[in-house]
Specification:
By secondary structure, this protein is mainly alpha-helical. The protein contains 14 helices and no strands.
Length: 313
């Protein structure tokens, strides 16, 4: 019996690790929680401090799991140091810091809706960098999902949609999305090392990049409060949307590619709306149901394998 136990324990974990859409659904659930929570502590924890503590904590957690593997993979990572710097800057340091700055000036719902542009941004970057052309089903899927996002944003009304405004916080978030789209597209170039080794190295480098800005903020702007609400929020953000979600997202891209994996980000406003209903007491309307149905349909279309157009040489 004991001989069979390891197999029984390992099999469900292996199934999850091999299922791109299971990993990506969990990723977007964790990321939606990060946005809602990030907005909740926006007036409590300074934005750069939030990003720095997030990645430093995630790095230390990951290091405990990946130390031996990281030692073996370090020579390969060092040979690719320019690429590691670029991926860490775009996917870790810049993206998250800019998003948290944006959350100090805009709503969590706005950020969740803007994040839904990410699949389109990834497809654009994949074309610019690698001349990848999306399949017909991918293109239709993105369009249908974006229609669902627009339905939620406009509350099912063209008049409401016409009066939606963009503020400084939204611009910070849009800039973050543009940068992170390049990270997702470039992940195909990452060094061929263990996923934990790559993730921990990227988080460590990104944390170091944020350190000077964190120190500046601590001296000139505000300090991290020693409050249990802040500590609990930082603990969640360091574990779930950082270490676990990025590990899952990187694996999802490895399994099905950046374009199809990016399509899953349309799930963020869906999960965000549910979290808002559960924890913030917001009401669920018919337009939410219509938007969610359109988003789900778009994801299904984009996940289907259809004939791809040849990439431009």
């Amino acid at each position: 019996m004991s001989a069979n136990q390891p197999i029984a324990l390992r099999r469900p974990t292996f199934d999850i690790w091999s299922s791109a859409w299971t990993l990506l659904v969990l990723t977007n659930l964790f990321w939606a929680g990060n946005i809602v929570l990030g907005r909740g502590v926006a007036g409590l924890v300074p934005p750069i401090a939030l990003s720095y503590v997030r990645w430093t904590g995630a790095f230390l957690i990951g290091l405990a799991f990946a130390w031996r593997q990281l030692q073996r993979d370090l020579p390969v990572l060092m040979r690719h140091w320019p690429l590691m710097l670029l991926l860490s800057a775009t996917g870790v340091a810049s993206y998250n810091t800019m998003s948290y700055i944006g959350l100090t000036e805009t709503t969590a719902l706005n950020v969740l809706l803007l994040q839904s542009a990410m699949p389109l941004v990834i497809l654009v970057w994949a074309f610019v960098l690698f001349r990848d052309r999306p399949s017909v089903l991918q293109t239709i899927g993105v369009a249908v999902s974006l229609l669902g996002v627009v339905t939620i944003a406009g509350q099912g009304s063209i008049e409401v949609l016409r009066h939606l405004s963009i503020n400084h916080g939204d611009l910070w978030v849009l800039g973050a999305i543009a940068i992170n789209g390049s990270y997702a597209a470039m992940l195909r170039l990452r060094p061929r090392v263990h996923p934990l080794s790559f993730l921990v190295a990227a988080m460590g480098i990104g944390s170091c990049m944020n350190l000077p800005f964190f120190l500046w903020e601590e001296v000139t702007v505000a300090h991290i409060p020693f409050d249990w609400h802040a500590i609990a929020a930082l603990g969640y953000i360091a574990v779930f949307p950082s270490f676990i979600a990025y590990l899952f997202f990187n694996r999802g891209i490895e399994l099905i590619g950046a374009g199809r994996a990016g399509q899953s980000m349309h799930l963020m406003p869906v999960f965000g709306a549910v979290l808002a209903v559960l924890f913030l007491g917001e009401q669920f309307h018919v337009y939410h149901a219509v938007g969610i149905a359109l988003i789900a349909s778009g994801i299904v279309l984009a996940s289907l394998r259809g004939p791809r157009r040849a990439a431009v040489s």
